Amino acid sequence: TDTISAGTHTLVIRFGSSSGSTSTANDDCICLDGRKRRGAIIVSYNGRYSDTAQVHTITYDNYYINDNQLTGSVKTIRVDTTVTGNWYYHVSVNDSLNMSPDPLKSQFVVWNGTLVRKWLSGILTGDRSDDAFSISGSAILTRPSGHQFTFNISSPMVFAMNCNYAESGIITVNGYQGSRVLNYGSGACDA
């Protein structure tokens, strides 16, 4: 990690005993969620996450989850509303997950989305446990078969750092076989 020099800073999160570009299945790291990971997640940024107009970009270096390679990027930029504590972030997601361990038989699940993340509470306290965020927007998931699913958040999803579940929000999912509605309730921290 380089956070001292001027210019772009880089945070590298490595999974396993080797660097991202040389990792193998022997380097798998079993994480708290029970999934095997290897490779690296790279975060590039210039200013702090709370600074206006600063872009934070997440990319991957030979990064695998349970032997499925994740590629692509997530870009986040803070928008200044001039109202203290009413910040929000534009988030662009362009990820691909290769569901085949054989590179000659690639089967990609592609996830593209444009989201807005609002920082609802805990902005000024310095204590992450009281932070809460809402997420709105839409995304499209394309399966290896070509079937597409469109996700539209019709009521913002609310996530608190001190809760393991979405506390509220409604997502409408439209696919080739119809529509479904995911309703996460009205604000209780439950499953």
List the main descriptive attributes of the protein structure presented here:
191 residues, mainly beta, 11 strands, 58% strand, globular
What does this structure look like?
- The structure is a single chain.
- The chain is mainly β and 191 residues long.
- The protein contains no helices and 11 strands.
- Strands 1, 2, 3, 4, 5, 6, 7, 8, 9, 10 and 11 form an 11-stranded antiparallel β-sheet that branches.
- The protein is globular.
* Rough outline: globular
**Structural class given helices, strands, pairing?**
mainly beta
Count of runs of 4 or more consecutive helical residues: 0
Uncertain parts:
none
Largest sheet: 11 strands, antiparallel
Distance between the termini: 36 Å
Order of helices and strands: EEEEEEEEEEE
Mean pLDDT: 86
Report the radius of gyration as a whole number of Å.
18 Å
Beta-strand residue percentage: over 45%
State the helical fraction: under 10%
* Number of DSSP-assigned strands: 11
The gist of it:
This protein has 191 residues and is mainly β. It is built from no helices and eleven strands. Strands 1, 2, 3, 4, 5, 6, 7, 8, 9, 10 and 11 form an eleven-stranded antiparallel β-sheet that branches.
Write the layout of secondary structure elements.
Layout: E1 9-15, E2 29-30, E3 36-45, E4 55-65, E5 68-79, E6 88-98, E7 108-121, E8 132-142, E9 148-160, E10 166-175, E11 178-186
Antiparallel strand pairs: 1-3, 2-3, 3-4, 4-5, 5-6, 6-7, 7-8, 8-9, 9-10, 10-11
